């Protein structure tokens, strides 16, 4: 029996969030919206990670998949920075558009923008994963219900190497967001005319991106500050005594049953918030982009394509069925045997056809004889 009384609610929510976050990905790829694409990818990957953990460790805290836990803890650290970093890229892009400088871009400019977004959304989270290893006290922790979780040593450098980055990225993103809103208010009329001349971005999509970035900012900064506070208040901050001291007994894996941590609010609240906020990001994103006009058009096109394929498949199956029935002979006893003509015989009558042929020959001969005589029986000259 699962220790979480709401099980399997969270695995279901996490899996649905993983799928929904990727639904708008194709048309954002076509529009070269790299920041939005990275947001979807990080959110979906984080939801998938949480889904696997919540299923495998729903009722135990055993170290049954150590390699997966090594990967999972890196995904957790990367997503905690990657999602806010993607929001930062979205706000940068919106700010450039609000300045009326970057709606329609050349191919080289698009490639340069994608390169910058990749450095922020991919390279920077990877660097944060590497920095977290410096203050990683042991291999990982396993919490029943939660699954694999990073084992970060509560020391002073931890706050600068790991915990501060979501708050810093969120604050930078907030600056871009405020500047964009300020420009929009000052140049509202010119903005609508300017954005209508661009390609791949409508005013509706712009404001939805703005709403997404603002909502994400409102989540990231308060949650990041709360994480800083909860980690500082949950236990005494240890002094940094060097690499060897921090990594002593590094292969250890700490395991916590649900009865140990679920009834300690200082541990349970941050853990539950850190896992529920991930599918919340996925559902918020789908709310802004999954029901838009462009999304509905693509859903209708996909539905029509599926219906056409099913109809074509049905027609092909019906044709094959008729072809097979035409090739297979009837199995009933009323059918006639196949006819094969026999060779002519010189004696006797072999069939009804031969009797008919002989009788027809005799009839014609007698008719010819009758025609050679007149009505009185005399032969004609």
Detailed description of the structure:
With 381 residues, the protein is mainly α. It has one domain: Rhopdopsin 7-helix transmembrane proteins. It has 14 helices and three strands. It has a three-stranded mixed sheet with strand order 2-1-3. The longest helix is centred in the C-terminal third of the chain and has 35 residues. The protein is globular. The chain starts with 8 loop residues before the first helix and ends in a 10-residue tail after the last helix. The C terminus is likely disordered.
Protein traits:
mainly alpha, 381 residues, Rhopdopsin 7-helix transmembrane proteins, receptor, GPCR_Pheromne_B_alpha_rcpt, 3 strands, mating-type alpha-factor pheromone receptor activity, 14 helices
**Global morphology:** globular
The CATH superfamily is identified as: Rhodopsin 7-helix transmembrane proteins
Residues in helix, %:
55-70%
Distance between the termini: 122 Å
- CATH architectural type: Up-down Bundle
The CATH topology name reads: Rhopdopsin 7-helix transmembrane proteins
> How many beta-strand runs?
3
Q: What is the beta-strand fraction?
A: under 5%
Low-confidence stretches: 330-335, 343-381
Structural class: mainly alpha
Task: Determine the oligomeric state from the structure.
Answer: single chain
Order of H and E elements: HHHHHEEHHHHHEHHHH
Write the layout of secondary structure elements.
Layout (H helix, E strand, L loop, with lengths): L8 H14 L2 H6 L3 H23 L9 H33 L8 H28 L5 E4 L3 E3 L6 H8 L1 H22 L1 H9 L6 H32 L8 H4 L6 E4 L1 H4 L3 H25 L3 H35 L24 H20 L10
Parallel strand pairs: 1-3
Antiparallel strand pairs: 1-2
